[in-house]
Amino acid sequence: MKRYLTIFFILNVVSIVGYFIYKASTFDMFDVEISKVAEIEVPNKLYKIGLFYIPSNASSQSYIQIKQLGKEEALQNYESYNYVNNYKLFNDKLRLILSDTSFTERKADTIFFKLP
């Protein structure tokens, strides 16, 4: 009987340690959720443009990405920005006012992007 209790105890310890090793090796250190900031319908064209916030990870900074919805490739990436203050569409150009909220003394930048 003592032998079975010892084996039961050892199996429980091994399974608990294994569980903690599994949890420690599979957790997410950084946010991995890509969030859609805006969806812009382009007049006189048959597509929409999406503005996305891509959070930082171990190998890259956070950035704002412009994509044509329905396609996988990015049209443009704007690194060092994490917030879209404003956007407006002018004929074939998109005006973006982007900022980085982690720096308080840094002002917002205005960027013009020519639509495809």
What does this structure look like?
The protein has 116 residues and is an alpha+beta fold. 22% of the residues lie in helices and 41% in strands. It has one helix at 2-26; strands spanning 35-41, 48-54, 63-68, 74-79, 83-90, 93-99, 109-114. The strands form two sheets. It has a four-stranded antiparallel β-sheet with strand order 1-2-3-4, with no helix packed on it. A three-stranded antiparallel β-sheet has the order 5-6-7, with no helix packed on it. Strand 1 (35-41) and strand 2 form a beta hairpin. The mean pLDDT is 84.
What oligomeric state do these chains adopt? single chain
- Segments where pLDDT lies below 50 for 5+ residues? none
**Tell me, what's the shape?**
elongated
Structural class computed from helices and strand pairing:
alpha+beta
Distance between the termini: 77 Å
The biggest beta sheet is recorded as: 4 strands, antiparallel
* β-strand number: 7
What portion of residues is helical?
Answer: 10-25%
| Rg, Å, rounded | 24 Å
Q: Give the ordered list of helices and strands.
A: HEEEEEEE
Question: What's the tally of helices?
Answer: 1
Taken as a percent bin, the fraction of beta residues is 35-45%
Please state the average pLDDT score: 84
Arrangement of strands in the largest sheet: 1-2-3-4
What would a concise description of this structure say?
With 116 residues, this protein is an alpha+beta fold.
